[in-house]
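Example (one chain per record):
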Amino acid sequence: MMSTVIGHRGARSVAPENTLGSIRAAERCGADFVEVDVRLSKDGILVVIHDDTADRTTDGTGRVEEMTLEEIRLLDAGSGERIPTLAQAADLAEELDLGIVVEMKEEGLEDLVVREVEGRRAIVTSFFHESVREIKELGDIRTGIIISSLPISPIDLALEAKAEAIFPRLTNPNLFKKAHRVGIEVYPWTVNDPDQVRWLRRLGADGIVTDDPCAIRKAADEPVTNVEAGECQYYPCHHFEEQDCTHCFCPLYPCRDPELGKFIKTKRGKRLWSCVDCALVHRPMVARYLSEHPEATAEELKRVDRGGDDAS
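Predicted structure:
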């Protein structure tokens, strides 16, 4: 099954970011959605720009919140492109049959964003999870929380915000498994390497946020296939006899059970839990039990492996 490709800031590797030209480039590359960032101008208009100043992305200077829409429209965002309003970006995305992901870069934009995107194929996201929750309370709109680290319970954060999706910068296999268990989709960002796209799809990514939809579209469309035993290019790989798998990451990691693994130090001195020699979750009886009891602990699985009461 194909993965959803989301052009980051349009298609910022192909055209000036957060512009109408970048949205058109994303469509030509085969993106399914375009992601844009929104802020508020001095006169209360939602404009599409990432930074809080115009310095990096235009030929002008100054804080966006201190500039009127008329002043913002005079700025060159690259190759003659202008900074669009959210209304212009959403209209163009709809005209091109693209969905739109709107990232709120500030708090307090909720009402205005809902007015622009309600009824469209849209997802509203933010690092401000309270704002995401408020969007859900204001309208029937898909939402997502953005996270740049891996907090203790990202799933709980999404559920508390009433979000349907998580947009993480960092991921691990457990994030995908736990999210999908409660119906939450996962869209990692920002991924520009086709091999990384293939790996994330094996782990369960529902889509990919990328600067260059042209470069990853093919990889996103490839079917996810099992890895032949002994041929997995990813570390750690156990290479157990007759093992074919989509990925071999233990859902208990890091279990920190001294019978199953140990802490090691990397060459850079980082303390890391290693269980590369553990075969517990690959044993048929244990694997079957784990699939039926996804919240099982290492102790439970060890009892199952020994043929204890938990195996019944």
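Caption: The first strand starts at residue 4 and ends at 8.
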